[in-house]
Amino acid sequence: MDSPSHTVLVVDDDAAIRFLCRVNLELEGWAVREAATIAGAREELAGGDVDVVLLDVHLGVESGTAFLGELRRLHPGLPVLLLTGSVGTPALDATAADGVIAKPFTLEELLGPVRKLAPRATSEAG
User: What is the spatial order of strands in the sheet that 52-56 belongs to?
Assistant: First the structure.
């Protein structure tokens, strides 16, 4: 089997959401790393090779949107998609995220934005 061409980091305190994202992204051919906290996300990012971050807005008492600012400073150009049940609020609309995925989401609502931000490096035609 071919090795994944891109890596997605899923940062969410809900284990079921991380599992759902991981399984579906892996079926699409991406490698997936997971973190339940901002500290865990920092550790995963320190390991390198992350192409896209899926970041929950509310990580328990931690703020995903505050962490987004840190990501923009420390990892400029790294695509970040916010995961949230709070879509439509002015605070989210004004973020520097590359997109927002509303919870609950469909498979295509998850995969479509990730595909756009991390297109497969290898063509399926061939």
Answer: 31-35, 7-11, 52-56, 80-84, 99-102
- End-to-end CA separation in angstroms for the chain: 15
> Is the full-model pTM beyond 0.85?
yes
Contact 57, 92 (CB under 8 A): yes
Retrieve residue 63's tokens: 């703020």
State the CB neighbour count (10 A cutoff) for residue 4: 17
Per-residue pLDDT tens listing for the chain (126 residues): 455 679 999 999 999 999 999 999 999 999 999 999 999 999 999 998 899 999 999 898 999 989 999 999 999 899 999 998 875 554 555 567 899 898 999 999 999 999 999 754 323 323
Q: 80 Cβ partners below 8 Å, 6+ apart? A: 52, 53, 55, 68, 71, 72, 96, 97, 98
